[in-house]
Amino acid sequence: MRTLDKDGYALPPVYQETVPTTENKTGLWRFLTPIRREKISPCRKSCPLENNIPRWINEVKEGNWGKAWSVMKKYNPFPAITGHVCYRFCEDECSRGFLDEAVHIGEMEKKIGLWRHRNYKFSETKPGNAEANEGKKPEVAIAGSGPAGLSCAYYLNVLGAKVTILEKMSQAGGLLATGIPEYRLPRDILQKELDILQSEGIIIKTGLKVGKDITLNDLRKNYAAVLLAVGAQESKLPQIAGDAVSEVAGAVEFLRDIHLNKIKKVQGQIVVIGGGNAAVDAACMAKLQGADKVTLLYRRTREEMPAHSDEVNAAREAGVDFVFCAVLQEIIGGEKIQKIRACRAAPSRRGERLQILAETAFDLDCDFLIMAVGQESGLSRFSSLSFSADGIAENGAAVFAAGDALSGPATVADAIFSGRKAALLLAGILWPEKNISNLSVASSLNGNEPIVELEHLNPRLFLRQGRFNTAEDEAGRCFGCGICNNCGVCWAFCPDLAVGGSDFEILLDYCKGCGICVRECPTGVLEMEEVSSGGA
Amino acid sequence: MINTLVGDFSREEFMLSGHNACSGCGPAIAMRFIMKVAASGAVVVIPASCWSIISGVVPLRSLKTVVLHCPFPAAAATGGGIKKGLEAVGDSRTQVIVLAGDGGTFDIGLQGISGAAERNEDIIFICYDNEAYMNTGTQKSSATPYGSYSATTPAPKVKSDPKKDIMEIVAAHRVPYAATATIAFPGDLSQKIQRALETKGFRFIHILTPCPEGWGSPADITVKLSRLAVLTRLFPLYEIKNGAEYKLNFLPEDYLPVNEYLKPQKRFASLDKLQIEHIQESVENHWKELCCKTGTRK
Amino acid sequence: MGRKLMNGNQAAALAVKYSRVQVVCAYPITPQTSLVENIAQMWAGGEFPGEYVSVESEYSALSYLIGASYSGARTFTATSCQGLAYMHELLHWAAGARLPIVLVNVNRALGAPWSLEPDQLDSLSQRDTGWIQFYCADVQEIMDTLIFSFRLVEQTRIPCMVVYDGFVLSHTYEVVEPPLQEQVDHFLLSPPSRAAFHTDKPQTIQAVTDSRYLSRVLQERHLSMLKIPGIVKELDHKFQEIFARSYPLAEGTNLETADTVIVAAGSLAQTVKSFLNTVEDRKEKLGLLRLRLFRPLPKDEIASLLSGDNIKKIVVIDRNVSAGVGGIFAQELRALLQGIPYRGKIFEFNLAGGIDLTPAMMEKVLQAISEDPGSEGKIIWGVDLQ
Ligand SMILES: Cc1cc2nc3c(=O)[nH]c(=O)nc-3n(C[C@H](O)[C@H](O)[C@H](O)COP(=O)(O)OP(=O)(O)OC[C@H]3O[C@@H](n4cnc5c(N)ncnc54)[C@H](O)[C@@H]3O)c2cc1C
Ligand SMILES: Cc1ncc(C[n+]2csc(CCOP(=O)(O)OP(=O)(O)O)c2C)c(N)n1
Ligand code: SF4
Ligand SMILES: [Mg+2]
What's the CA-to-centroid distance between B103 and ligand 4, angstroms? Predict the structure, then answer.
């Protein structure tokens, strides 16, 4: 650049004309290339629903409740319910737990559910699925209105079927209504869920027992497909000497009677046999309903109890006494039960043979005995049918099974998952030609998906920080394992400014392949690959 | 931005892709952060160092700001002169930022820094410390830590003297602002640049910037090493105001053993157990001193 | 303004003030000290409105000015011997970066051993740094050349070193005629000069280059240097118009008639001049060539001054020695006279170490070269003649 000064002298060049280094394609240096590969988070892996937890947490973080619900519903249509009752297997595996404390996933799930409840507009919704298959909707019957039945109904309805639920009890909801204590699941939550489903076009008929009030064959005739989600509610009552007395009940039945107000008051000394949730809930309920003393006998040690520790603790707080390594031997009494006799067993692990210790018998006063040593599947009533593990009737009939009925007693989340899986199976029958996209129903994992390991993550990027009160803040504690949540850490640390755009794409023209983005990525979604894929 | 130590900062960039830093270069990251906060309305002075290459070989330039190069030992004085010159021509607004390596700061530039600090020149002097003369191929500087290999302290005669405490030297000049920072804590770093911008007089920021090339560490752990340096307390993050008011900016929750930091670096490969213990001990002593000065109990 | 008695350093300080220098930055060293003290005095008293910055070394002084000059400020520093040597790296930088800095070097011998004598090697060993060099012969010239230099450097963006002998000029009082401020303002470009950058335009200044680019830079610098004599002449006209004084690139005395020409720079030339004036009716016809602009060497000017057939012998007086070669002025002159018609002999008379030139010594030299024509090619050492 030549300029003249005020006296007209030519001035020498002072400025060097320069050009941006972007001319220089440093991508040529690279021999490893970072790529984004989403992985399954440990929480998702451990969730019976395979719920894509980090995805909706990411929306909660921004306060996008609507978006959070849109992600959630593909996996779990009833977060208000699971938010209350689920045992939160996800939190046990949360990667954040290795840094400070697991993210409060269940609480956020509950809040999404409650948000949905608050924001659901009954007036605006049209019964049934508006877009799909109007006019020629295939009809499906579902026996059982527990979480499995409700979940399947929800998804089939979304996919465009006309769904009728038949429930033998007077109240819909399965164990949500008749099993789980109200202090854990307030019934208005359940009711709201049922109201929404009905408002969406699902028909729920209560007081109709399939196999009695209407036969399976009738259903098969009138419906394109049938799902049996009849639960596993019939308590097994093992033959114990002298047990033919009226003061003995199965736990599920006991709870059901309480919930249906058939039992108004509990009195005297109650003994509960069993170590599962049903046993603990029944014991707890008995105590809360006025029993003088409740003693729970479990044949193995405390550690071996299948019941969730939260519930055991709740029962303890309620005043239930626990006797471990004790086995019921005999019910003593004539017309009326008076005592039970039990003896000691050597401590053992689940699945091991129980070893009864000789001469250890002891008696307990007992006015009422609750047995919770197993429940039988409602499918046993339909003995003509057998089902594959996926719940497909093996005789080729369009009959399916799901939930506890198929798996045996499990959890609400398992039941919802089972209902979701069944919905996709049924959809295959209802619309054989149609490719069911997973836009509205998540399909299940095939087990080959990469899982996030702790070493993929970068916990030291975070400060130790206990749980927050607001969901938005708490969501910020989530590492986002396995998903790209646009945190921007890759962008932030790139020495080469080779991460750009709003979705942080790798700019291959400039990426030198140092791998800092991969190392620093807090979610473990970035990997180095030994190909120089594109770019300069 | 998620709730991490990274912190929020602007997406506007004042550095350009295509620069010539090695893959995984710590000083490149540091500059990017500095520029985000300070580039607009500032000129940058760079003495001989890796950054004299990274900023662009003619006709290229990698910074979206004015960069003035100067001789190796001259940075502080040149910076002061630029500021004085700008004032003389009626510009009292433009900030002058000097960015020198550890060689240009701890060694050959020290006299100039001392002079500029004593005169309280109105500049921000930033030392990016990669703990050796990297531009010339990893020779030792007085910032090279005890036990480190360099081309001029080859094994088994690795560096036997400790790193110079530049912060104390600067603090002894009673300058208005001095701080340490490192690239794994960009939020903290940005804040310190901001604080420096808001202060008048001689401001000094010492930034630890791992150098994969010179440290013999994999390129991908540059930021991780920077973080480990803080978590092991080898490189505490603190500020000194007016040479006397010390403030610790980050208190590691649990102290990691220094070996976690040393192990991935080939330059420390020859250290034996005793030497590592020695380093651990000196880290702890330094930490204690610092805690005393900052009034920190831990 | 009336005439005043002052020494070289005082004159230089005044010139700095009149030139409205904006940033002065220096480090004290004998015999420059009183120069910067004078500026500091004026600065403290409010007479000098620029900035006076005391730094911790000559290295920083010139670094500082490089910075200030990058910013476009008018800058000045002064030093001597060790200080100038200490600045060496920056001298190159300033010239390479085309920064219009003016520097006074008061000649003094470089150690070891320590000495305060006015040897010229300090400035001469910086001859290849790309700076313009003027060697002044009296106090008035110091003042005028300095004022002149500010105009020259800002116009050409080549830094300039104004050199004069330690003590002999720096501390010796002479009557001078200080200029009027308006005259100086009229002569100089009004500061600030161009900055090397625009604060709002991304730019890297003096970044690493490849050989091709660098070669162009150096070529450009060389070509710019070649133009300096012409520009100096032109500016001198202007200077003369305003100040009624004029300075040649190189000054000839009696060259049309002389058979023996003495070549000298700085105060030595003054000594020789008075020798010419005092000594009459001698067998040689003596003449004097005073080197004033030494970098770039005004080749054509000198060649034409020395082109007369009358000149048979040239005696170059050096108060410096490039060990193993000889006096630097002598070398330069020999190189310059290569390929021009002059066919006479060149003798070297060396006062390295700051030996004082006396008339007696001059006589001895003249005698020596007339008696021993073989002394061409040998150095006649002043110290041997004492
Ligand atoms: C006491 C107790 C507490 C529990 N607490 C929890 C908990 O806190 N968290 C958790 O995750 N899980 C809990 N569980 C387990 C969980 O409730 C069940 O795994 C889950 O409800 C199973 O759902 P489902 O839909 O398969 O069956 P169910 O909920 O059992 O529903 C089956 C439904 O089918 C109806 N039905 C049966 N036969 C017919 C028929 N022939 N015709 C029409 N209707 C029929 C039943 O009346 C019932 O309504 C608990 C279980 C019990 C027993
Ligand atoms: C006076 C001088 N001596 C030596 C050099 C050669 N030199 C250039 S850069 C450098 C080392 C720079 O080290 P540092 O300041 O730590 O910066 P880094 O290269 O590590 O980024 C050296 C020795 C020089 N340019 N100038
Ligand atoms: S040698 Fe080190 S500091 Fe220099 S460019 Fe390479 S990685 Fe960066
Ligand atoms: Mg270095």
Answer: 5
Q: Please, how many CA atoms are within 13 Å of residue A360, restricted to the half-sphere of its CB?
A: 13
Tell which B residues from 186 to 245 touch C, by Cβ distance under 8 Å.
none
Report, as an integer, the average pLDDT of A104-124.
93
Predicted complex ipTM exceeds 0.85: yes
| Ligand 1 near A149 CB (within 6 A) | yes
The architecture in CATH of the region A42-122+449-475 reads: Orthogonal Bundle (1.10)
The structure tokens listed for A224 are 């394109």
In the block, residue with structure tokens 């110079």: B164
pLDDT at residue A129 greater than cutoff 60: no
Q: What's the pTM?
A: 0.90
User: In angstroms, rounded to a whole number, what is the distance separating the alpha carbons of residues B181 and B34?
Assistant: 11
Range(s) of the domain holding residue C143 = 4-243
Rounded Cα distance, C382 and C386, in Å: 7
The torsion defined by the Cα of A357, A363, A367 and A370, in degrees rounded to 10, comes to -10
Closest ligand relative to B22 C-alpha:
3
What CATH number belongs to A236-374? Answer: 3.50.50.60
Q: Provide, as residue numbers in chain C, all residues whose Cβ is less than 8 Å from the Cβ of B84.
A: 23, 51, 53, 64, 67-68, 71, 73
The phi, psi pair for A248, rounded to 5°, reads -125, 130
Which of ligand 1's atoms lies nearest the C-alpha of A150? 25
C295 at the A interface (CB within 8 A)? no
**Beta-strand pair A499-500/A326-333:** unpaired
- Please identify which residue in the block is written with the tokens 């020259």: C152
Whether B224 sits inside 8 A of A507 (CB atoms) is no
The answer to whether B33 touches B189, Cβ cutoff 8 Å, is yes
Tell me whether A23 touches chain C (CB under 8 Å): no
With beta carbons less than 8 A apart as the criterion, state whether A255 and A285 touch.
yes
The verdict on a CB contact (< 8 Å) between C189 and A16 is no
Q: What residue of B is the nearest CA neighbor of A488?
A: B1
Residues C223 and C356 in one domain: no
From the candidate CATH numbers 3.30.70.20, 1.10.1840.10, 3.30.70.330, 3.20.20.140, the one assigned to the domain spanning A26-38+484-530: 3.30.70.20
- Output the CA–CA distances (angstroms, integers) from residue C102 to A174, C91, C154, C243, in the order listed: 97, 11, 10, 20
Task: Output the six-digit token pair for A292.
Answer: 């003088």
Instruction: Pick the more confident residue, B101 or A353.
Output: B101
Which residues lie at CB < 5 A from ion ligand 4? B 101-102, 130, 134
**Nearest-by-Cβ selection for C51 from B59, B84, B114:** B84
- The answer to whether B137 faces chain C, any CB pair under 8 Å, is no
Question: Options 3.40.50.970, 2.40.50.140, 1.10.275.10, 3.40.1010.20; which CATH number does B26-294 get?
Answer: 3.40.50.970
What residue ranges do the domains of chain B occupy?
26-294
Tens of pLDDT along chain B (298 residues)?
455 667 777 889 999 999 999 999 999 999 999 999 998 899 999 999 999 999 999 889 999 999 999 999 999 999 999 999 999 999 999 999 999 999 999 999 999 999 999 999 999 999 999 999 999 999 999 999 999 999 999 999 999 999 999 999 999 999 999 999 999 999 999 999 999 999 999 999 999 999 999 999 999 999 999 999 999 999 999 999 999 999 999 998 888 999 999 999 999 999 999 999 999 999 999 999 999 999 987 6
Q: Does C223 score more than 80 pLDDT?
A: yes
For residue C203, the chain B residues in CB contact (below 8 A) are 61, 66-67
3-state secondary structure of C131: coil
What is the distance between the alpha carbons of residues A131 and A366, in angstroms, rounded to a whole number? 60
* A323-332 per-position pLDDT tens digit: 999 999 888 8
**Inter-chain residue contact B89 with C208, CB threshold 8 Å:** no
Cα separation, C103 vs A188, in Å, equals 91
Check if A141 has its Cβ closer than 6 Å to any atom of ligand 1. no
